[in-house]
Hints:
Blueprint: H1 2-12, H2 18-43, E1 45-52, E2 60-65, H3 66-73, E3 83-86, E4 89-92, H4 98-106, E5 111-120, E6 123-131
Antiparallel strand pairs: 1-2, 1-6, 3-4, 5-6
Helix pairs in contact: 1-2
Amino acid sequence: xxxxxxxxxxxxxxxxxxxxxxxxxxxxxxxxxxxxxxxxxxxxxxxxxxxxxxxxxxxxxxxxxxxxxxxxxxxxxxxxxxxxxxxxxxxxxxxxxxxxxxxxxxxxxxxxxxxxxxxxxxxxxxxxxxxx
Length: 132
């Protein structure tokens, strides 16, 4: 608020023009938006959890800062296909639109990307990939 008040005082004292005041106020808004987005993106984590045999806590629980995931995604060739097989079922991770996921995350969206449960014969596996 202090910067806004100073700009308005400069306008009132005719130290700056109204168009200069508008430009300065726009810069303040952009700076605030940048700081908010930076804080949001720093705190977001990509979580990968896998449960086996319907136990309450996952036997694999990985948390990766979203900023690191974004960086790593740049090095994956576009034609890469990653398959994960559990029994006769599977999930093709290459079908995920990571650019869209990162875009939504940077706007504050949280939640599941993949939530997959497989119950076959004696195998029960749950995979959950989400942004927290």
